[in-house]
């Protein structure tokens, strides 16, 4: 919190400059300026520019202002704050709706430039969502309910992002009645079974598409889908006990990012990824061999919580275009694959693998590496050469300390015991 503010010197700056500076500061820094006739208006607008309204607000982001329902109702009825029009508002609703707030609060919600709304209903509660049509400024909408009647759901006409989470779908037969607004750019469906009816008319501007917590998945039904021409990101996640089979899946040719998560999937055989992909992320616990041809042009590859061992990783042909590689919490026992990596690699994450070897090994890392995580790697078994140019290094639970004289002079951040330290070589 700033003390002894020199309001006279600040008043010499253009208001636009002050507003830009305020926008970069934590919200609590605005409070002293409320007492200044010159800066009160700018500080007030900045303080209330981004609101989070929650039934139990827990401030976790200092760039946001948090309010309970009652606090927001008081804000909306405060005569001194009527001229303040918040830019972005996020309201989280539990077993209730926005129209249950005071009329002043409802009016203020409709004035947000961008409103993000999240509804959570209990397992036995049937949601009343007719109010959505009254809020044309809704940008992001998240619905969590087991009684969602797809046929009666009318979505806001300018919505950009829609997330639907269902635990027990009691209205599955009304899938085909849901009409997506043409403005929709991101769609996430969780707990919604893969049936042709719900995917017959994806919105034309869709960029991101996620299907999560699947209990059934049909490759043939998926391959019959007509994806919008601008689709760039696709996420596929099965439920914990579902044996997902994606053999023969045909991913859209425009796809740039593909995320796959499945506990039961054991092989990637028969999966073709388009050459357009720039990033791939796999979280597949039972995956024990990586029988997938990676496209030249791929820049990011992440393999998380898999059963891949060192032999399986040594067999992977890594593209020379790779910039970031993560093989974390898998079954790697050696670093023998590292010399195969492109010398242009900038990011390498190897945390959580059960590394071991019978004799010390010499490892040289790619010369362009800037970020390296060796968390839980027994470094006493290796003779390592850290590249000059390395800027961030995680050596949590490796035996190294802040005092060890093994780090390159270029290092800026050293992570020890999961805590980040600013590093400067003495």
TrEMBL record:
It comes from the Eukaryota. Gene3D superfamilies: Ribonuclease Inhibitor. InterPro entries: LRR_dom_sf, STK_FNIP-Repeat. PANTHER family: FNIP REPEAT-CONTAINING PROTEIN. This is F-box domain-containing protein. It comes from Babjeviella inositovora NRRL Y-12698.
């Amino acid at each position: 919190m700033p003390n002894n503010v020199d309001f006279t010197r600040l008043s010499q700056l253009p208001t636009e400059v002050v507003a830009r500076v305020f926008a970069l500061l934590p919200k609590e820094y605005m409070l002293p300026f409320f007492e200044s006739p010159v800066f009160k208006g700018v500080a007030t607008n900045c303080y209330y520019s981004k609101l989070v309204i929650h039934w139990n607000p827990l401030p976790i982001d200092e760039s946001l202002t948090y309010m309970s329902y009652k606090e927001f109702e008081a804000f909306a009825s405060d005569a001194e704050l009527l001229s303040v029009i918040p830019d972005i508002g996020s309201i989280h609703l539990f077993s209730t709706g926005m129209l249950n707030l005071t009329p002043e609060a409802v009016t203020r919600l409709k004035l947000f430039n961008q409103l993000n709304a999240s509804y959570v209903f209990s397992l036995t509660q049937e949601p009343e969502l007719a109010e959505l049509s009254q809020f044309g400024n809704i940008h992001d909408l998240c619905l969590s309910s087991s009684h969602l009647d797809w046929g009666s759901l009318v979505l806001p006409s300018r919505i950009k992002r829609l997330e639907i989470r269902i635990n027990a779908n009691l209205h599955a037969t009304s899938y085909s009645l849901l009409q997506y607004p043409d403005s929709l750019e991101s769609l996430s469906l969780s707990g919604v079974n893969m049936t042709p009816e719900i995917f017959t008319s994806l919105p034309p501007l869709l960029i991101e598409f996620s299907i999560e917590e699947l209990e059934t998945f049909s490759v043939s039904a998926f391959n019959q889908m007509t994806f919008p021409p601008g689709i760039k990101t696709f996420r596929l996640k099965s439920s914990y006990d579902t044996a997902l089979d994606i053999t023969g899946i045909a991913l859209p040719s425009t796809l740039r990012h593909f995320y796959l998560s499945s506990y039961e999937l054991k092989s990637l055989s028969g999966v073709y990824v388009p050459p357009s992909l720039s990033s791939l992320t796999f979280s597949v616990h039972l995956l024990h061999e990586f029988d997938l041809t990676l496209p030249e042009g791929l820049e990011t590859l992440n393999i998380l919580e898999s059963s891949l061992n060192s032999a399986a990783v040594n067999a992977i042909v890594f593209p020379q275009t790779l910039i970031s590689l993560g093989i974390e919490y898998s079954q790697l026992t050696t670093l023998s694959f590292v010399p195969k990596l492109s010398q242009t690699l900038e990011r390498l994450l190897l945390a959580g693998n059960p590394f071991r070897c019978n004799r010390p090994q010499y490892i040289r890392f790619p010369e362009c590496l800037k970020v390296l995580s060796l968390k839980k790697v027994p470094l006493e078994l290796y003779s390592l050469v850290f590249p000059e140019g390395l800027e961030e290094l995680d050596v949590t639970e490796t035996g190294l300390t802040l005092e060890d004289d093994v780090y390159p002079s270029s290092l800026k951040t050293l992570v020890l015991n999961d805590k980040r330290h600013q590093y400067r070589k003495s």
